[in-house]
Write a structure and sequence with these properties.
alpha+beta; Glucose Permease (Domain IIA); rod-shaped; 5 helices; 10-stranded antiparallel β-sheet; about 270 residues
Length: about 270
């Protein structure tokens, strides 16, 4: 009888212990389910954010002069990884909570790939935008002095002193002696000095194959190697060289060829 009572007591205690463990497991599963629901909500918010960023990325790439990301490339960041995971079967064996965790893992991996794709796209767009901004800053775009146009760019014109047909590789802007001469774009001073026919002259290299020259100056205010920005005062109008009256001779050279400087006078809204 004592043995029976002992066995019954042991079974009762074991059952109580098992019930306690079961209760704890149920509580743990309930807590895990709540955490998974919270994580699912946060994941949905992240998906919405990435969708918005994807739309913005398209706009930024267009501004940067880049083609939008291909739709197939974007889809590469959606969905879970293919193949076997060491923990996959273990998660599936955990029932509903395990399956939820597995789905969450799949979606999270997809979001990570999409985020990585967008990060690379934004980096590419930023580099392109910076290049565009730098090029605009270095593109001649303003009249280099105040005055009136007295002679246009021409492949050939009758020279006012030699009275024979000669090319005029720039424009002449008549202005009073001492009128400020401005850099038409950012660049580096590559030449300061005098040249036959040009008198005192300044040459700026703007990069991207763009060069500007300013001639017949009365005074030069910059030195070789100096960096200047658009609108910086670099010289004063004069009448040095072969001239009949004070004026600025202004040239724009692109890719080694003289261009009509009037083609490089842009509205402020484009360059600023």
């Amino acid at each position: 009888m004592a043995v029976v009572m002992l066995v019954f007591a042991v079974m009762t205690v074991t059952k109580s212990i098992n019930l306690t463990r079961l209760d704890r497991l149920q509580q743990a599963n309930a807590l895990l389910g709540q955490e998974l629901e919270i994580a699912r909500g946060q994941l949905t918010e992240l998906q919405d954010t990435l969708t918005t960023l994807t739309s913005r990325d398209r706009e930024v790439r267009l501004l940067a002069g880049l083609e939008p990301l291909d739709a197939d490339v974007q889809l590469a960041g959606i969905g879970g990884p293919v193949g076997e995971w060491s923990e996959r079967d273990s998660l599936l064996a955990e029932g509903d909570a395990g399956r939820q965790a597995l789905d969450l893992r799949l979606d999270l991996d997809g979001l990570i790939r999409r985020a990585s794709l967008l990060a690379g796209s934004y980096s590419e767009a930023a580099e392109s935008l910076n290049a565009h901004i730098d090029r605009l800053a270095r593109t001649p775009s303003i009249m280099p002095t105040q005055g009136f146009l007295s002679s246009r760019f021409a492949r050939a014109r009758i020279h006012p002193i030699y009275h024979e047909a000669r090319p005029h590789p720039g424009i002449d802007i008549s202005a009073p002696m001492g009128t400020p001469v401005l850099a038409s774009a950012g660049g580096t001073v590559t030449h300061v000095g005098t040249a036959i026919g040009y008198g005192k002259m300044v040459t700026l290299d703007h990069g991207y194959g763009l060069v500007t020259r300013y001639a017949h100056l009365s005074k030069i205010l910059v030195r070789e190697g100096q960096r200047v920005g658009r609108g910086d005062e670099i010289a004063l109008v004069g009448n040095t060289g072969i001239v009949t009256a004070p004026h600025l001779h202004y040239e724009v050279i692109a890719g080694g060829k003289h261009q009509d400087p009037l083609s490089y006078i842009f509205p402020d809204t484009i360059v600023d």
